[in-house]
């Protein structure tokens, strides 16, 4: 089951550059939330602060409060625990090139010491089915490398890998931006199905995509969260002039 | 100004292209030819002198015909095994530190500098170093001292290749692992190192092949021995040493054995390098790296 996310006064830096400036928002559980905004406005930085991937960059720093369910991300737990609970799908598909399709999906469990083969088999099949990839790969699960798949398949493999560890939240940073329209449509279908079980935060450049999959949408501009509201409201009747300019294509 | 290339222009480019191709081929031949000649000559001389006794018998005293280098073959195996056992883990460990943890820190730069300097130190100096650090305090020559001397020579190559190969692993792959909640040390071993492993293995093999033929560092450490090795704590026979001693001797019989020894040494290196490649390549998947 998904859990909600509460962000209070979140600030982030790269070296001296203040990249995220006082972000506050509440992301509801078991729904998809879209984050939109022009390139470089801080969308990726924001989602990376939610699962503490931000701090893997040696010059990066974050301050503020992020609560995922009842866990204070920056106080109560280690980055490793947090990332187990908050899965992430990146912009470019990044399967492990040396691992088979099976091992890619099982990696999150296996590399955390989980060994029960029967359970692993089940989890791999269930995750690949959920990611709508099972039928395409079931005949060469262990003989083909994850890197041998097409771009769209690789991204669905990465989604399967992320949901195999049963996270509560799934962060997706422009998951379809490197993909063709057919693969993009598959990923969107997937998001639709996954949001019953997970809380999904999806960064997207594509406003139609946000409108199609998300209940709520947030608009970022130069490190500020300008507006956060229901997707319908953002796209039909935004309260901020800058949001309106952006969605009507007047800049960005 | 016309932007399309004229006919003359295209002709000139093609001529230049041909010229460079020919030059490249010529340089390749120039490099390969002497190597090839040496190999053929060695093969010719070596095969003529090889027999079963060479692999099974101990060396005989001057004047007695026959005898072999069985103890040197085993000795070289032991020394190289020991050197690899000590040098490769240290080298890989240092390479991991440099790329995955060191960043631009002073310690990392100091290690890089040391490795580069160490790489340029003449091998005889390594022998003297191992002599004064191990042989002198222990008051005897030993296989152990030889292993350490060669291990130190392997470390810089292994360290630097490990660092370079880790740098070729896309950061996205590391992030994928960290994003799954896999601890950093585990990410380094099972993802970064595994992805970089073909290149790292090549580096280790290069380091191995380079020290396998070293004679100078063995002079003050292994020292040589006419008998079978029984312990790491005594002087030990080694192929390069035995070849050296036999080659500079005045006896034809010993020259013959030296050629055979040289051939066996080269074949041993080629076989071990190939073997490692085959074994390491077996686990690879279709479409992987
Ligand atoms: N690794 C980094 N080091 C320094 N600055 C960065 C880094 N990543 C992003 N930035 C800067 O932070 C700002 C926000 O970037 P990002 O979060 O990637 O934006 P978005 O995902 O909305 O395009 C940009 O100005 C970018 O230049
Ligand atoms: Mg981004």
Task: Explain the overall architecture.
The complex is a heterodimer of chains A (252) and B (289). Chain A has a 6-stranded mixed β-sheet with strand order 6-7-8-3-9-10, with helices on both faces. Chain A has a 4-stranded antiparallel β-sheet with strand order 2-1-4-5, with helices on one face. Chain A contains 10 helices and 10 strands. The two termini of chain A are 36 Å apart. In chain A, strand 1 and strand 2 (17-27) form a beta hairpin. Chain A is of the alpha/beta class and 252 residues long. Chain B has 289 residues and is an all-alpha fold. Chain B contains 11 helices and no strands. Chain B has helices spanning 7-49, 52-56, 70-102, 106-120, 123-138, 143-167, 171-179, 184-212, 216-219, 239-247, 252-282. Chain B is globular and about 85 Å long. The model of chain B has no long low-confidence stretch (mean pLDDT 91). The chains are: A alpha/beta (252), B mainly alpha (289). Chain A binds chain B through residues 51, 53, 56, 58, 80-85, 87-88, 90, 92, 94-100, 107-108, 111-112, 140, 143-149, 158, 161-162, 165, and chain B through 103, 170, 172-173, 175-183, 186-187, 190-191, 194-195, 197, 285-289. The structure holds adenosine-5'-diphosphate and magnesium ion.
